[in-house]
Amino acid sequence: MKLPATLSVSAELHAFSIGVAVLVLLWAAWRLPWEKVRGDNEAQRIFAIFIAVMIVMRGLGTQSVLGVNLHFLGASIATLMFGARFALLALACISGAWVLLGQVWLGWGADFLINGALPVAVTVGIGLLMRKLPAHILIYVLGNGFFAAIMAMSVSIFAKALTTHLLGGNAMPYIAAAIPLSFAEGFFTGGVMALVVAYRPQWCASFDDDVYLAKRD
Fold first, then answer.
1. Is this prediction's pTM over 0.70?
2. What is the pLDDT of residues 112-128, one digit of tens each?
């Protein structure tokens, strides 16, 4: 979602959000598993393609629904396919691209934190809960893909609503959009992950053939 133009943000808030965002990226860069992609041209290509596709999809968001513009996040897909640290790097690049295009939510820092870091954290948390369930491909797609994306988008939207309210804006458009947009993100993510694990499981860092496709007695 894009912030309505009428909501003003102080320079201090911009600086604070950028500072927190930089700290998150430093954490992601620390012990980033570069060895997983070093020399792997296919992995590097898929990572770059994901960033490019999500930049474009963000620009194809719906035009002004109840006063806000809506777009897919792709945070759950990035987390499942590349891992949390690479996902944060990708989402930071996507937010940065839209800074250059002049359309980000509260500036790069807040946009990355609420559209990127927060949904990634939710997806990781749901993934940890899913480990307590039987390792089955259907549970993976529905739990880690569909459900995690719904929750990630919901948390992101309500964080935006709360921030908007605290800044004196109207939070109701965000709340009204929460259910349809969250389910859209869920179906999008679940569909993409179903295709990936079915046809290109090697692209997905969180999917293990030996675990999810193992024969059971």
1. yes
2. 999 999 999 999 999 99
